[in-house]
Design brief:
The chain is rod-shaped. The protein folds into 2 domains: 55 residues; 34 residues. The relative contact order is 0.07. Helices cover 72% and strands 0% of the residues. The chain is mainly α. It comes from Paucidesulfovibrio gracilis DSM 16080. InterPro entries: Transposase_8 (IPR002514), Trp_repressor/repl_initiator (IPR010921), WH-like_DNA-bd_sf (IPR036388). GO terms for molecular function: sequence-specific DNA binding; transposase activity. Pfam families: HTH_Tnp_1. This is Transposase.
């Protein structure tokens, strides 16, 4: 028997179908999978589902760049004010 490859979208659809309908045996029959496989996918799905609500990962370099960017924006603002004040005198 040849093993099938399931893509992540299909696995999610199968798990959600089982969670929403509550009839795991029917879902397994429909997708031709064993209940053990379904429960393995379901457990993985539930364990990692909180990641959906996390923001995109920021590397330390990105955080440093964002801080530097804010610092430079403040400096440009201060210099602009200073130039405007000198121009008005």
């Amino acid at each position: 028997m040849k093993r099938r490859k399931w893509d992540s979208e299909t696995k999610a659809r199968v798990v959600l179908d089982g969670l929403l309908n509550g009839q795991v045996s029917d879902v397994c029959r429909q997708y031709d999978i064993r209940p053990g496989q379904y429960y393995k996918w379901r457990d993985y799905f539930l364990k990692h589902s909180a990641r959906v609500f996390e923001g995109p990962p920021r590397s330390p370099d990105m955080a440093a760049l964002a801080a530097e960017n804010e610092k430079l924006k403040r400096l440009v603002g201060e210099l602009t004010l200073e130039l405007n004040q000198k121009g008005n005198t």
